[in-house]
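DATA CLASS: polypeptide
GOAL: derive structure tokens

***
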Amino acid sequence: MQTAAPSAAPPGAETALFKGLQAGFADQFRRLFDDPKAPRTVLVVPSLTLDQDVLARISGFTHYEERMLCLLLLLRLPRTRVIFVTSQPVPSAIVDYYLQLLPGVPREHALRRLTLLSCHDGSARPLTEKILERPRLMRRIGAEIADPAAAHMTCFNVDAPERRLAVALGLPIYGCDPDLLPLGSKSGSRAVFREAGLPMADGFEDLADADAVAEALADLKRRNPGLRRAVVKLNEGFSGEGNAILRFDGAPEGAGLLAWVRQRLPRLDFAAQSMTWEEFSSKIGVMGGIVEAFIEGRGKRSPSAQYRIDPLGRLELISTHDQVTDARSGQIFLGCRFPADRAYRLEIQAEGMKAGAVLARRGVLGRFGVDFVSVPDGAGWRHYAVEINLRKGGTTHPFQMLQFLTDGAYDPVTGLYKTRGGKPRYYFASDNLESPAYRGLLAEDLIDIAVENGLHFHGARQEGVVFHLIGALSEFGKLGVICVAGSRGGAERLYRETVAVLDREGGAVEAARGTGR
């Protein structure tokens, strides 16, 4: 007997229904989440429901859904079922790569509890929108959920489409209510930091158009005449792609300053190199933005701290990282080191907890991160809160992979992660290992290269290399990598060795391609 496709909630009722589902999630959490043998179903919808114009500037972004394939390792829990939905089918070689990482679980047992579904739609639109357009696919998803009272959704980020899907399927989401998303915008972050008493750069928020941006830049310069640079940020920008810098070199004093700023706005230094002022100003009109003083300082760093608020309202520290950014602008996220430097990691995790307490009081649920800029100051550091990300981020999947592979825990007292045997583990991770020489390499080729060169994760040593974004390799010459070792230096050496091997192997393929062999 066929079940009817889930139907959309009447306008105005969706929000109330969603809040009801979320409220009921607390009971499920109490019953199931501390019992690794409890039967449950996790629906993974790795949709990047973000600004598609900004997202399109990221090479291979259509494969970024694969970053959440680390959640296949939830199948290590013997009675957990995973339903993983993607825009395009995930090649079996990639699925097998993750399943062979499962500690102590036969592949066949895991496969029986895994359902892979696809929209067969590679268009550059959020996955959740594609699912909502396919009622038969939604019916298949519903049929795979044996007990909705023991099931939930997890997503990269939660916005109106994810809320609509949750209501249609009758499932709660382990993520933030879209009504609270303004708290994680650039303007909302500044408001939260102000309430939490966190230091931040001088600036202005809630700017609605280009005129407001120009006036804010001029005001910022007037109250700090020595200011050399300022940053303009789109409220909903991410990974630094929505940022731009204005240099005040040659700026006049007095009445001519505002006119000078307006003339230079079209020549902002955009972090996204293909961005234009016309596009950027249009985005400001749609989503708003902020202006901040650029934080100067030799040796400055970009650390972040990650947290989770569970369905019972409890705030938990998860990790700290030092973010790796591009050399040109220093604004675009390329990767991360875990944990953050010992000189300040305990300081930033404590500062971030202050913002987390504000978010918990507001009803935020799920994972979020707090980003900082940290500047050497005598024998210590000065930390400026920069932004809040109310979603999973580029640091989420590497840390989850470390947890799943080693079954260890983060120690907030030391800021270190330790395996069950008490040994610390560090990693260097990147989503942006990219080279033209890698184009044409298939998933099977990558696995051969990894095995032949010892670039794989050793379960016995609990060290090694794990790849992700493998689907982007052949077309874009891009993939992600997590290099796990017993020291920070060891993780970075392993990363350099991995790059050297891929460059060598990819170069040989490129040379053969050039000669037609």
Summary: The chain has three domains: 14-175, 202-293, 322-340+361-370+387-514. Residues 214 and 262 are 6 Å apart (CA to CA). Residues 202-293 form one domain. The longest strand covers residues 366-377.
